[in-house]
Design a protein that fits this description.
Elements lengths: L1 H30 L1 H8 L1 H4 L14 H9 L7 E6 L8 E7 L7 E7 L6 E8 L9 H11 L3 H26 L18 H31 L1 H8 L27 H11 L4 E6 L7 E7 L12 E5 L5 E5 L6 H14 L4 H11 L2 H28 L4
């Protein structure tokens, strides 16, 4: 059994381990994606806090109008992000036909105090990933290997294979005989080969619980539909989720209320938290979808509390509140915050930063040890065949 598992562990490590190392290193970059993007694009969306304290943001409608004026004629606004802090920025995300069958995604950045346009760029282009901003390029490399849906599936399958590598590695790590203490420390007075072996097995053993959480959550993110199907028989994954197809009432001569009024309606519904996003209506019968972060929500960078608002009457049509989620809905909600460490704040990000380098350590020590053993097997027979002189 150990020989079989050793072979399985070795080949999974040699093949899927390369992706694991790449995912770990790119994951570290993505932990600091906001800071890195701001540093690389300081002129695009730098701090906008006014010189005089006490000034407030311009109305959402005014900011949206300023950004919409810069959307290409064939572009379509799909989402706005509101400032996440007093020195944050407002941006409009829009889709734009690229002529290759896959629309590009653009971003227009607005200073929320002055209403001035501070930046305009393409942030996602399925037809030319290398033209994307650095952080977006790293993000697509992390979970699609820059190969679209095929690459995403390969990454998911690699994650499943890594679960097998973790299981086989833990089995091989446990001592066959003697006290368990021997499996928890480096062997004293050992030579280079044994130190290399201990570094590989101890790194794997100590990070295995965290690696299990990260790999499982990552696989569940990639295979989201399949994950939901597995959970649904035990707990609903859609009972409290915002349904598709919600529509506004006919206008009956009424003008649209505007994004500012939709945000005000949500503020009246929930006093806690901070407004984070608004999706404008899609067409004449579309609805506003307003995201307002809930206090204590597991998400930090985004929110799962989303309210659907009629674009003419301002009536609340549906509320998606994470505090009312079923067990199944909560499991799906936790996938991303667990995968990134976001669920545990600054401490979680620090732990994930350290962990991001361990797949590279495991991959390199495994490769070096495999090559040394392979070389030794070739040298040993020839040395036996040489007569003593």
């Amino acid at each position: 059994m150990r020989a079989i598992l050793s072979t399985i562990h070795r080949w999974i490590g040699l093949i899927a381990g390369a992706y694991f190392a790449l995912a770990g290193l790119t994951g570290v970059v993505l932990l600091y994606r906001s800071e890195i993007d701001a540093w690389l694009n300081a002129g695009l969306k730098g701090p906008s806090r006014p010189a005089h304290e006490g000034e407030t943001f311009r109305p959402i409608d005014a900011l949206l109008a300023a950004a919409t004026d810069r959307v290409p004629a064939d572009g379509k606004p799909v989402f706005i992000h509101l400032p996440k802090s007093d020195d944050g920025y407002f941006d409009l995300i829009y889709s734009h036909p690229s002529g290759h069958g896959h629309p590009a995604i653009g971003q227009i950045v607005v200073d929320p105090y002055s209403g001035a346009i501070t930046g305009h760029r393409v942030i996602a282009d399925p037809n030319d990933r290398l033209a994307e901003p650095f952080v977006m390029l790293i993000m697509h490399l992390h979970y699609t290997l820059l190969a679209g849906e095929i690459g995403e599936t390969i990454a998911g399958l690699a994650g499943l294979a890594l679960l097998g590598s973790l299981a086989s590695g833990l089995y091989l790590w446990r001592p066959l005989a003697g006290p368990w203490r021997r499996a928890l420390f480096f062997k004293r007075g050992a030579g280079p080969d044994r130190i290399l072996f201990d570094l590989h097995r101890l790194t794997g053993a100590y990070v295995a619980p965290l690696a299990l959480v990260i790999v499982v959550s990552g696989v569940c993110l990639i295979f989201g539909a399949q994950t939901g199907s597995l959970i649904a028989p035990f707990s609903s994954v859609s009972e409290h989720m915002l349904p598709q197809g919600l529509k506004s009432e006919p206008p009956r001569g009424r003008p649209p209320i505007g994004a500012s009024a939709a945000a005000t309606a949500v503020d009246g519904l929930f006093a806690d938290g901070r407004l984070m996003s608004i999706a404008p209506p899609n067409g004449a019968d579309g609805v506003y979808r307003v995201g307002k972060h809930a206090d204590g929500e597991v998400y930090e960078t985004e929110t799962k509390r989303i309210v659907s608002v009629d674009q003419y009457s301002g009536a609340i049509l549906w509320v998606q509140d994470p505090r009312e989620f079923t067990v199944g809905e909560r499991i799906l909600e936790w996938r991303f915050p667990l995968h990134t460490g976001e669920a545990f704040g600054a401490g979680g990000r620090a732990v994930m930063t350290v962990f991001g380098f361990t797949p590279t350590v495991l991959f390199l020590t495994g490769i070096v040890r495999w090559r040394r053993k392979k070389r030794a097997r070739h040298v040993l027979p020839s040395s036996r065949a040489t007569p003593n002189l």
